[in-house]
């Protein structure tokens, strides 16, 4: 079953009881493996049990894996000595040492990665792109949205739905957890007057993510507490980002980060 067929099963009320803002968004999240059909409280247990097995969950990791072998071959054409400084990297024993999320990854000329950490495909592909593109611009500290990246408008809605919205859900329910996770991966809190809480994290040395979060607000109306402003979360990028990786690779990187945080949060807090 695809997302359209799943959507037809829903009541189409966009009630948000599943913690997704729209029924179509929920259907897409089921196909992407981020939600289960039973997470919709308006579908009976019998129906969800009967249909769950016919839903083919997409695994975008397979698509990312297919990118990696061609990229490894291109790494051999890169002059590590020439590009290291511009990438914010170092040379160690003729290999390129790059810090991602505060962890050191050492890449040899065959494209092999040496590290004490597990290397996820969603990090490996952007890392190779980063090295091959060999940007050298200084960071501007001027922040732009995903849609303002070159051609980013093409996937802006996808980035919002699959990266910003899931991260907002975690921040809504467990703000302390998100702060702890960002600290573990060498993120730093920053003071941005326009947001309630902000962090900067470095998935790649010259590709920082600025995560800005606004809490929901309550107001008294007719003696009932009602949400007057929903929470909001935005991920912004340095204006120089386009020189290092493109909008598609930023999407892979952002989605990988959020999926990692989501899995950790589900393990500890059972968000589902």
Structural class: alpha+beta
* Counted beta strands: 11
Q: What proportion of the residues form beta strands (DSSP E)?
A: 15-25%
Uncertain runs: 219-224
Helix amount, in percent? 40-55%
Could you tell me the mean pLDDT? Answer: 86
Number of domains: 3
User: What is the spatial order of strands in the main beta sheet?
Assistant: 5-11-8-7-6
Span from first to last CA? 21 Å
SSE topology string? HHHHHEEEEHEHHEEEEEEH
| Structural shape | globular
Which quaternary structure do these chains form? single chain
The number of distinct helices, counting runs of at least 4 residues, comes to: 9
Q: Tell me about the biggest sheet? A: 5 strands, antiparallel
Radius of gyration: 20 Å
Explain briefly what this protein structure is.
By secondary structure, the protein is an alpha+beta fold. 41% of the residues lie in helices and 20% in strands. It has nine helices and eleven strands.
List key phrases describing it:
272 residues, alpha+beta, five-stranded antiparallel sheet, four-stranded antiparallel sheet, 20% strand, globular
What would you say this structure looks like, in words?
It is a single chain. The chain contains 9 helices and 11 strands. With 272 residues, it is an alpha+beta fold. The protein has 3 domains: 50 residues, 3-methyladenine DNA Glycosylase II, Chain A, domain 3 (Orthogonal Bundle); 74 residues, no CATH class; 127 residues. The strands form 3 sheets. A 5-stranded antiparallel beta sheet has the order 5-11-8-7-6. Strands 1-2-3-4 form a 4-stranded antiparallel beta sheet, covered by helices on one side. The chain has a two-stranded antiparallel ribbon with strand order 9-10. It is globular. The two termini are 21 Å apart. The relative contact order is 0.12.
């Amino acid at each position: 079953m695809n997302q359209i067929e799943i959507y037809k099963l829903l009541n189409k009320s966009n009630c948000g009881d599943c913690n997704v803002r729209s029924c179509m968004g929920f259907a897409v999240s089921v196909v992407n493996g981020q939600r289960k059909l039973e997470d919709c409280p308006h579908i009976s247990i019998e129906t969800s049990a009967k249909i769950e097995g016919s839903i083919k969950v997409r695994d975008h990791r397979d698509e990312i894996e297919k990118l990696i072998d061609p990229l490894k071959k291109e790494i051999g054409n890169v002059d590590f000595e020439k590009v290291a400084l511009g990438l914010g990297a170092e040379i160690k024993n003729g290999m390129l040492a790059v810090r991602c999320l505060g962890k050191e990854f050492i890449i040899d000329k065959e494209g092999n990665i040496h590290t004490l950490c597990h290397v996820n495909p969603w990090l490996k592909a952007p890392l190779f792109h980063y090295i091959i593109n060999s940007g050298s611009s200084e960071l501007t500290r001027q922040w732009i949205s995903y849609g303002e990246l070159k051609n980013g408008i093409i996937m802006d809605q996808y980035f919002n739905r699959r990266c910003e919205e899931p991260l907002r859900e975690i921040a809504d329910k467990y703000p302390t957890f998100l702060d702890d996770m960002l600290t573990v991966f060498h993120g730093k809190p920053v003071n941005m007057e326009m947001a309630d809480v902000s962090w900067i994290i470095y998935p790649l040395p010259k590709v920082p993510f600025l995560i800005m979060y606004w809490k929901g607000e309550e107001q008294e109306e007719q003696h009932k507490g009602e949400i007057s402003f929903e929470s909001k979360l935005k991920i912004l990028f340095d204006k120089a980002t386009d020189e290092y990786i493109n909008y598609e690779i930023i999407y892979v990187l952002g989605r990988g980060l959020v999926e990692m945080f989501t899995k950790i949060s589900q393990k500890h807090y059972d968000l589902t």
